[in-house]
């Protein structure tokens, strides 16, 4: 299950959905807001999403992970709204019979999410300025 | 042809609104973005964006139909 949420992510609760007595491994990734980016001090971040398409693309990534790796289940949640340094911005969890597939699938999900899911963030800096991450310097897609 | 346009992130800010309805002669997503970019001075060239119609990614050559909901998606930065 892939969710876009505008409230605090709770890893304990998210993990509950992945309970499986056949799982010998559970791997998770937590992406947190950093207080510095490109050498600039970051005070806060505003995340926004094109939610219907973000959830569709996110579900496709989870389905790809299940097809590519021998895992039992995978889930992911992405925050939107105003976040502060230390806040949890994204959570990925994967269960598998064995650890290798759990680690690999977890990595796959977060890497693809960052490339494909329509979510954007605006950073607010200590000097009072702000900017959209990637929107000034992103590489052309074509 | 009447369309609904949704704007996100830097495009939403440059347009000053999140959504609008407009009448256009643009036949494809690429023609529509070119028209909107000229009208509103969007800084991002089309090569930096992806197009979406009715909540699904589409190629720039996708033909638009009356009533479509169109969005142009800036480079993503989730996670």
Verbal overview:
The complex is a heterodimer of chains A (142) and B (79). Chain A has helices at 11-16, 51-68, 99-116, and strands at 2-5, 25-32, 36-37, 40-49, 71-79, 81-83, 88-96, 119-125, 130-132. By secondary structure, chain A is of the alpha+beta class. Chain A has one domain: Molybdopterin biosynthesis MoaE subunit (Aldehyde Oxidoreductase, domain 3). In chain A, strands 3, 4, 6, 8 and 9 form a five-stranded antiparallel beta sheet that branches. Chain A has a four-stranded mixed beta sheet with strand order 1-5-7-2. In chain A, a hairpin with a 2-residue loop joins strand 3 and strand 4 (40-49). Chain A is elongated. Chain A starts with a strand and ends in a 10-residue tail after the last strand. Chain B is an alpha+beta fold. Chain B has a single domain, classed as Ubiquitin-like (UB roll) (Roll). Chain B contains two helices and five strands. The longest helix of chain B has 12 residues, at 29-40. The interface between A and B is medium-sized, with 33 and 22 residues.
Give the key terms.
heterodimer; A: 142 residues; alpha+beta; Aldehyde Oxidoreductase, domain 3; 5-stranded antiparallel β-sheet; 4-stranded mixed β-sheet; 3 helices; 9 strands; 30% helix; B: 79 residues; Ubiquitin-like (UB roll); 2 helices; globular
């Amino acid at each position: 299950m892939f969710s876009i949420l505008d409230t605090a992510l709770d890893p304990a609760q998210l993990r509950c959905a992945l309970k499986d007595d056949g799982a010998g491994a559970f791997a998770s990734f937590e992406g947190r807001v950093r207080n510095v980016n490109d050498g600039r001090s970051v005070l806060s971040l505003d995340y926004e999403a094109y939610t219907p398409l973000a959830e569709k693309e996110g579900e496709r990534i989870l389905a790809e992970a299940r097809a590519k790796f021998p895992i039992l289940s995978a889930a992911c949640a992405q925050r939107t709204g105003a976040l502060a340094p230390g806040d949890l911005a994204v959570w990925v969890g994967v269960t598998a019979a064995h650890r290798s597939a759990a680690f690999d699938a977890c990595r796959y999900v977060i890497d693809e999410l960052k490339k494909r899911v329509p979510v954007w963030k605006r950073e607010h800096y200590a000097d009072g300025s702000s900017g959209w991450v990637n929107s000034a310097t992103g590489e052309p897609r074509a | 042809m009447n369309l609904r346009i949704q704007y996100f992130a830097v495009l939403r800010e440059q347009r000053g609104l999140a959504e609008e309805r407009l009448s256009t002669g643009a036949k494809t997503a690429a023609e529509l973005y070119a028209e909107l970019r000229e009208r509103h001075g969007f800084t991002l060239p089309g090569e930096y964006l992806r197009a979406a119609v009715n909540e699904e990614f589409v190629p720039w050559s996708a033909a638009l139909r009356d009533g479509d909901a169109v969005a142009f998606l800036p480079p993503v930065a989730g996670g």
